[in-house]
Specification:
Length: 167
């Protein structure tokens, strides 16, 4: 039986070599309060039905809101939204202050400026170690124009097409 485990530092260092997009995930609690967090642990899961997933740290302040909510919105961030990503990654911040938040028909917070928004019904929650895997069925999506915000080696980057000159 394999009992060997990797050191957390080595695991983090290896994962930092994975380039991803950046999302902000929002929901509303039973009292109508908005919650949200920045997430790079996002993936499509299934085309039919339309399923996606996002992983939420069990220690997040917004954990209970997402654990109990019937739905959430995943915002795929655009270049230039680094500030929004930083705000929604800051504990204790008034994350929605100064942002033009609208509520969807189902009462979920919609942020402007994203490359795409996926409004989801919570289909399943699966414990995944120190994170909770939220699987959502996408029932509404919209998209805008622009380039994606990229996260790589603990920093934000812009997308450059392969072969393009850096000069
Ligand atoms: C680029 C980036 C990606 C992140 N990805 C995740 C993620 O996938 N899941 C997660 O739980 N936290 C992630 N975080 C950290 C959370 O956004 C942060 O801890 C947030 O403040 C948690 O919400 P809370 O303020 O309600 O505790 C990420 C942070 C950054 C800057």
């Amino acid at each position: 039986m394999l009992t060997e485990t990797i050191s957390p530092d080595l695991f983090r260092a290896a994962l930092s070599r994975w380039a991803s997009g950046v999302t902000v995930v929002t929901t509303t609690d039973a009292d109508g309060r908005s919650h949200g967090f920045t997430a790079s642990a996002f993936s499509s899961v299934s085309l039919d039905p339309a399923l996606v997933l996002v992983c939420l740290d069990n220690r997040a302040n917004c954990f209970d809101a997402f654990d109990q909510s019937e739905g959430f919105v995943i915002h795929l961030l655009a270049q230039g939204q680094e500030g929004l990503a930083g705000k929604f990654a800051s504990k204790g911040a008034d994350k929605f202050a100064g942002t033009d938040v609208r509520l969807s028909e189902r009462g979920l917070p919609l942020l402007p400026g994203a490359l795409a928004r996926l409004e989801c019904r919570t289909e399943r929650r699966i414990p995944g170690g120190d994170h909770l895997i939220l699987i959502g069925e996408v029932h509404h999506a919209d998209q805008g124009d622009g380039e994606p915000l990229v996260y790589y080696q603990r920093g934000f980057h812009e997308l450059i097409p392969a072969g393009a000159s850096l000069a």
